[in-house]
Amino acid sequence: MTSVPDSEFSRFAQDSASSVDNRFEVTLSSLIELSKVPGIAWEAFDSSNLDTSAQMVADLFRNLNIFDFVEVRRSAVDGKPGAPAVIARRAAKNGKPQVLLYAHHDVQPPGNIDDWKTKPFEPVRTEDRIFGRGVADDKAGIVAHLAALQALVDSKGKDFDLGISLFIEGEEEAGSPTFRNFLEENQADLAADVIIVADSGNWTTEIPALTTTLRGLVSVVVQVKTLDHAVHSGMYGGAVPDAMLATIKLLASLHDDQGEVAVAGLKSAQTDELAYSENSLRQDSGLLPNTQTIGSGGILQRIWGKPAITVIGIDGQPVALSSNTLLPSVRAKISMRIAPGQDPAEALNLLKAHLLGHTPFGAELSFGEVELGKPFDMDDSGWAAQLVKKSLAHGWSAAPVNIGIGGSIPFIADLTEVFPSAQILVTGVEDPDSRAHSPNESVHIESLRKAMVSEAIFLLAGNELQL
Ligand SMILES: [Zn+2]
Known about the structure:
- The chain is α+β, with helices and mostly antiparallel strands.
- It has 2 domains: 6-213 and 375-462, Aminopeptidase (3-Layer(aba) Sandwich); 216-269 and 306-373, Alpha-Beta Plaits (2-Layer Sandwich).
- The chain is built from 14 helices and 20 strands.
- It has helices spanning 6-22, 24-35, 48-62, 139-156, 179-185, 187-190, 233-236, 243-252, 278-285, 299-305, 344-357, 383-396, 410-418, 445-462; strands at 69-73, 76-77, 80-81, 85-90, 98-104, 124-125, 129-131, 163-169, 194-201, 209-214, 216-225, 231-232, 308-315, 325-326, 329-338, 364-373, 376-377, 401-405, 423-430, 442-444.
- Strands 1, 4, 5, 8, 9, 10, 17, 18 and 19 form a 9-stranded mixed beta sheet that branches.
- Helix 12 (383-396) crosses helix 14.
- The longest helix is centred in the N-terminal third of the chain and has 18 residues, at 139-156.
- The protein is elongated.
- Bound molecules: zinc ion.
- Zinc ion is lined by residues 104, 137-138, 172, 199.
């Protein structure tokens, strides 16, 4: 394939910045209008808002007049229809790459309204930020794609060669239930060489980031039994072990005294060294002053590159109903974040082997419901990753960094499975203070502008590439 000379990038940067700037107020108004629609893909909420926001998104991209089609489509799982997604495509010409732009138009529920300083669905613009539910996650991603495409049209006209596919999902915050089916049913329209997922964060408001790793998720419900029925704790306590005691000892074996995960054989991955102090961790997480951190190694290494285990639920006896009884059985749900590069099924086997090997008193152990989510570990040596980094450097006038996310984006695994040859670029529209999913969500206007310019540079450069 050909490459784009470095000298071209300053011209792309200028063209991109002037298009984004000329249209910036209009773009921000679109963001604000989109953010007034409470499209929430959870059953308890009015799903007609998702139809409204899908239509608004479709209209915004239709107005560009560059696609062969812009449609609202949905898939189903077990006969249950998913939320409406916007899909569009124009095919690449003359050997140029096909780029799929992904974002989602559904948002998180607002949570407790009293915790909001402004009304969640009445966006408020201050000097440097816009506040409202979804303004960052992920309606900012939608308008970033829009502004970048607009810049491509402003610079090249409508007859450019780059192929563009668009997928604006409507149920990401609800766990993307029909995502896999949607990908498979629309595979031909979504197929691309590069997928830009504009749904992550930047390192600071000055330093852009490419998200190159995500941890995966493994969870399992475990049941511990010691008795075939409950018995009086005075009659038998001291000689007969109750299931809660066995469970406590079993769960305690999952970590050593420093809080380091004690399950043998789990992988770790090396993450990039970025400055993040224990103080920042304390502030960001609300850790109490005398409570120590757990684990070992750099903070980011612990959060991004190593496994973590959390017991997220226990079914025993609520305190209010407690009586002097030896509980015969207890259930616990164990949730494990796994390092980039770790296979979830293998991690589950290691966890089960640990539990079976550490069951106290010969208690009976059985396993229930399992969830497996793959981690993500991007190879940043591909041409698209190199190109996006160059684009970020020019768009932000600052060198980008690779960041990880301790959490998981399960749909990324579906993308890699359905489109194994596509390079996936997880880019950021958020900054550390965006508070996605929390009250007072906001987008930093200048960061969003720089994200738009960078994506525009990427498209302009991609349009020059011969695959
Ligand atoms: Zn999101």
